[in-house]
Design goal:
Order of helices and strands: HEEH
Number of strands: 2
Radius of gyration: 12 Å
Oligomer: single chain
Distance between the termini: 37 Å
Shape: globular
Strand content: 25-35%
Strand order of the largest sheet: 1-2
Helix content: 25-40%
Length: 71
């Protein structure tokens, strides 16, 4: 119930200079967990570290993973 919805996620990402390119989501464990999965883009590398720190501080986030992929 405390998990951000799509708009909340987009807003959180934007606050760190990160934009969402693709998004999928799923309800897990009989609806107890809500999982977002997607691709994000940032213009500066530090944005991902800042985003990770922000996600870490949210009690409503059980876990997260950010993988940096260079092209």
């Amino acid at each position: 119930a405390e998990a951000p919805d799509r708009a909340g996620l987009v807003s959180l990402l934007a606050a760190h200079g990160v934009s969402l390119r693709e998004l999928s989501y799923a309800r897990l464990h009989d609806g107890a967990l809500f999982e977002f999965s997607g691709n994000v883009v940032a213009k500066r590398n530090q944005a991902f570290d800042d985003l990770a720190a922000s996600l870490h501080s949210l009690e409503s986030v059980a876990e997260f993973e950010i993988s940096r992929i260079s092209k």
